[in-house]
Design a protein that fits this description.
Length: 254
């Protein structure tokens, strides 16, 4: 899954989605992308020490600064380097979850759920949970090999463990990140036949079984942490501590 590592809370995305929705149906060319990114700065959704915003600041006053501040950003997600790549930074997670369709030089589309969220008809947690369950599959803007819904997969794993009086450890959750097919029975068999007491155990296992070559910190910290945060944002799970970190269903949202 291609989530930005800066995910912290859904409120951040509400402000971003409210702003970009103004340009629904417009083609995301260079001039429009500069307009959108500059507006994000102007309305203080994002910030930079080099871009000072006052009540008198107009969008034309900051466009050159927006270009300069983002000039070192590399091309990403099909968007060219610079401010266009900055736009994709904020669209990566909404795109992954189907909130928006955002492709360079194509029309921008906003999902019905976003429109309901902006109007206050549903809250952020409900919006994230609906999108996670309905749209986290292969689609035109996802560069992934797996065609299964990870959220459904991991929740079913947790439910199966719950039925047998067990609970998913964070170390086991790390290993779950690398499922190739979302087969719950197969993964539960892995948990029965292997012990993951440390993050080093997890790293050795995924390297051996799945041929993972990514560095240790990315495998055991960066990637699982961002997915865990999205599960929390969506209200699916609760993280508890019993000497170690464990993940269980959010009983209030059962």
């Amino acid at each position: 899954m291609a989530f930005e590592t800066a995910v912290r809370n859904p409120e951040r995305y509400l402000g971003i989605l409210k702003i970009i929705s103004r340009w629904e149906g417009k083609i995301l060319n260079d001039s429009l992308l500069l307009e959108i990114v500059s507006t994000l700065y102007l309305e203080k959704i994002v910030s930079s020490n080099k871009i000072k915003i006052t009540e008198e600041t107009a969008i034309e006053d900051i466009k050159d600064l927006v270009i300069e501040v983002n000039s070192s950003r590399r091309a990403d997600g099909g968007f060219p380097s610079g401010y266009a790549s900055r736009f994709w930074t904020y669209m990566r997670t909404p795109s992954e979850l189907g909130f928006v369709y955002a492709r360079y030089r194509e029309k921008l589309f906003i999902s019905p759920i976003v429109k309901m969220l902006i109007k206050g008809e549903i809250d952020e947690q409900e919006a994230f949970s609906i999108q996670a369950m309905k749209f986290n599959r292969r689609n035109p803007y996802r560069n992934v090999k797996n065609d299964f819904n990870f959220f459904r997969f991991i929740l079913e794993v947790i439910l199966r463990l719950r039925e047998s009086g067990k609970i998913l450890s964070f170390e086991q959750f790390v290993v779950a990140m690398f499922s190739r097919n979302g087969d719950v029975v197969e993964f539960l068999r892995i948990l029965e036949n292997n012990t993951f007491n440390t993050l080093e155990d997890c790293y050795s296992f995924v390297k051996s079984k799945y041929g993972v070559k990514t560095r240790f910190k990315t495998v055991v910290q960066d990637y699982p942490d961002v997915v865990r945060r999205l599960l929390l944002i969506s209200g699916f799970i609760t993280v508890i501590y019993r000497g170690r970190k464990f993940i269980q269903l959010n009983e209030n949202k059962f």
